[in-house]
Each structure stands twice: as C-alpha cells, then as structure tokens.
Amino acid sequence: HGGFTSYILYFGCLSNTSIKERCPPFSLSLSLYLSKRNETLAHLQYKGGYPLTGQTQIYKKRLLLFAFAIFIGFSVVMTWFFINYAIPFEDYVMTLLAATALFIGSICGSTTSLIFSLVILFLYGSFKVGFALWRQNQTPVDASRLFWLLIVPFSGYVGGGLEKIISDITERLTILSTQIDSLVVIDEQTGLETSKRFAFRMNEELARQKRYGGYFSILLIKVAFLKELTDVHGERAKGLVIRNVAQILKSSKRTEDLLARIDEAEFAFLLPNTEREGTDIFAERIRQKLQYVDIALGENDFRRIRLTPQTGSAVCPADSQEYVSLMTLARKEYEYSHH
Description:
The chain is an alpha+beta fold. It has helices spanning 2-12, 25-46, 54-83, 89-108, 110-135, 146-183, 195-212, 226-233, 235-252, 276-289, 323-335, and strands at residues 216-224, 258-263, 266-272, 292-298, 301-306, 308-316. The chain has 11 helices and 6 strands.
C-alpha cells in the first residue's frame, strides 16, 4: 500500500520537483494544471498564434461531451450489473473509480489524474488494512486485489495521454488556422481588402513618406446604426446593404487608392498624394452617395434604406506619422461628427 502510493506520488509529480516539498495534493495539482495552460498559451503566442479559435473550441467541447456521455453510459451499465448481482460491490466501486481516473485524465491531464489515483489507492489500502485489523485475523489479501493497484493509476495515465494528444492536435489546428487567416487579404462578403492588408499598405506608405517625403491621407467611413437597421429589416438586409455600400465605394476610388473593409460597418481609404482639402471634398462626395441604398429582399420586395454615413480623416505628416495615431484621429473625427 505505502509502496504503491509513494510510486504514484513520485510518478505524478516528476515534472515539478517543488511539489514534493510542499503538499496539499489537490491545490498543487490545480497549480500544475494552470501552469501547463499558461505555458501552452505562451507557446502559441510565440509562434504567432492565438488562443483556440471558435471552431476548434467547439470541436473540443463536442469531444469532451462525447467522452462524458461514454463515462455516464459505462457507469449505468456497471450499475445494472451490480444491482443484478453480476459483480461484487468492491469490484463495482473500483471499476467506477478507474473509469473516473480515465475521465479526469482526459480532461485535466496526467498529473491531476495520477494524484487522484494516489488518493484512491491510499483510501483503498487503508480500508483493506483497517478491515484486516478490525477482523483481527491474518487472512492474506487475495492476489487479484493487486489488479486494482495497477489499473487505477494506469487508467489515469492513459487518460492523461489522451488529453495530451487532444491538446497537441488542437494546438496545431489553432496555429494552422491562424497562419491561413494571416494569408487571407480579401473580405469574403464585399470582395474588398481586409484590415491586415490595409495596415500593411499603410505602413509601407509611412516608411516611404519618412524616407522620401510627400504626403497621403486616410479616410474612414462608418455606416452608423447598423444594429438598428438589422433589427428593423433583418440580417439578410444588413448583408445586402454592406455589399451595396462596398460597391458604391469601389466606384468612387481612383486606381492608386486602396479601399479596405476594417470592421463590420467600417471602411477605409488610403489616398496617396492627397492633402486635407482633397480628402474633405472626397468625404463629402462619399456622404452624398451613401444617403440611400436600394436592396431587393425578394421578387416583389424592394426597399430603399436610408443610411447615416460618418466620415473621419487624417493626413500624414500633418497630423501624425504613426499608424495608430492616424487611425485614432480619424475615428475620433467621425465619432464626434454630426453629418
């Protein structure tokens, strides 16, 4: 009993020597679990990734729910065998505890599951020793009981291995999806450039301006009250409005200009060799064009939607020579405008 519990304690805490110096096993297993999650997050950020994407997270939750359903189903089957006297009580309890160690390992990792196994084996051995002393006989414990001293920690170890495999797969999927996302420069809904492409081009213009001089402007256009529009006309109408706005903006740009969709209702122009006066004239023209858009929701359902376009601009180098500052100034202008 003592030998097996010592073995499990050493094996479960091998990766962190400080745990052997300060115990409460449950709080220590929690700290190990959290430190492992923080290391995974730092590893993803170092590689250019981010925490689990929405789709990967959904798949992982479904997998955990499936594992939980299997655990519940197994427990029901074992209970049915027990109430029909197919298995003894001791085997019934230890089987469920072994399954619990496997389930905990598949969720929390091998460290937590092995510490759980340590507690189970300690209680199981204590029960056996206490029962023998209470009976005051020297009847040897059946050798088959050794099976539980092996299967419980083994189940926890297998569960921890499954958790590591799942974590590795989700990490790779997250990194891969992040890398794929970084390559996408076209907005699917409107066909415009994305915010990443806009930032890249704007930083190029900033570097060129600092080296060779010159000037350029940015113009931000926001379709205000988009949520209220969606509440009145529906989600499909919102999508049609966004696409129509994108088409109007496309028809207004020059060949050398860059047009991008920054956010759901926010668009941006990068206007090379354009000072403030030219930007203001262009902004006024855009606002006039975006007073109304016509959409067709059905064969006989045509609607004219009134829009509230807001614009804000910033000029480099007159306002700033930094990307964040220019974007902040342009946003402040349209937020406080009353066009």
